[in-house]
Structures are given as C-alpha cells and as structure tokens.
Amino acid sequence: MTEKSMRQRMLDGELYIADEEVTRDYLRAQDLTHRINALPAAEVATRRELLTELLGGLGAQTDLRTPVRFDYGYQTFIGARTFVNFGLVCLDVARVTIGDDVQIASNVQLLTAWHPVEPEARRAKWEAASPITIGDNVWLGGGVIVCPGVTIGANTVVGAGAVVVKDLPANVVAVGNPARVIREI
Fold it and tell me: CA–CA separation, 169 vs 184, rounded Å?
C-alpha cells in the first residue's frame, strides 16, 4: 500500500501539511484570482472564462462581483443563476457546494479550513478541512461567516453578521452568533 500524498490527504479531509504540490495548487488559484480581480467591470466574458478555469463548476447566468478570494478554486462548485456580491472569501480547502439561485451578500466568508486544538499539532502546521454545502435559493446576508462542515438547507435566509457553526434546516430564517433559527418560512 502506498502512502497518500499531502494533496490527497487534503482532498480526503484528513490532516495534512502544505507541501510543494499543495502550494503549487494554491499559487495557481492566487494567480487566477488576481487576474479576475484586476479585470475592468466590462470584461464579463473574460471574467467568466477565468472563473471557469479556476472553479470546479460554474453554473449558467451566475454572477460573481469582484474582488473574490479562493484558496484553491477547484474545490468550489457554484450553481446556476447565483449572485455573489463583492468581497467573497472562500477558503475552499474542502469542497464548497453552492446551489442554484443563491444570493450571497457582500463580505461573506465560507471557511472550510480548521486546525487541531492540540498546540503541538498546530505548531507543526497540521491542518484539515470539512465541506460546506449551501442549498438552492439560500440568501446569506452581508458579513455572514459559514464555518467548516456546515450545510444550509434550501430556501433558508441567514441574517447579516451571523456566524453559522452548525447545520441549518431548509425553509428557516437564522440570525446571530452563533446563528439560531428564529422562524420558519
């Protein structure tokens, strides 16, 4: 049996340390992200071309306003007719799945990465990630933070500034830190 590469450990959601291969993937994403963010607003076709090269999937009629930031890009899949406003930070060390018709307000953070609690493992630079899934027709208000491993159900609204640390069901409104359901839709 062969030992897994650090990249494969990362993709499998296991603890890993960023090596040359992982760093190469990261630098590729940073170069593409820089090019995307530097484009004039009118360069819609070129922006879409670069986003398609960067991301794992990009649905039809989806609009991402710049600036945007991704760790790796290829771990992010965005559905059709989704709108992402300025300032998205997507730490896509693990897979990030964003459904169709999603509305993401400005300065939202989707954070899949996490670090061990044990000081020695952290000092040694071990890290891991857990996937994030955003269902169809979700609205994330301005400044929402979605933490590792969270799933947000379809049609759910998350109020501005909320910190989502655990799964939210479909068809609810959630607010606060930590986010809590305040009503059904």
Answer: 10
Domains of the chain, start order: 6-184 (2.160.10.10)
Q: Nearest to residue 178, comparing CAs of 170, 169, 166? A: 166
Sheet-wide strand order for 172-175: 63-64, 83-84, 103-104, 139-140, 157-158, 172-175, 180-184
- Distance (Å, whole) CA 144 – CA 156: 13
**Among 147, 183, 185, which residue's Cα sits nearest to residue 166?**
147
Catalytic residue selected from 24, 34, 115, 166:
115
- What percentage of the chain has pLDDT greater than the value 90? 98
At 3 the pLDDT is 87
For the chain, residues with pLDDT lower than 50 are: none
Does 115 participate in catalysis according to the annotation? yes
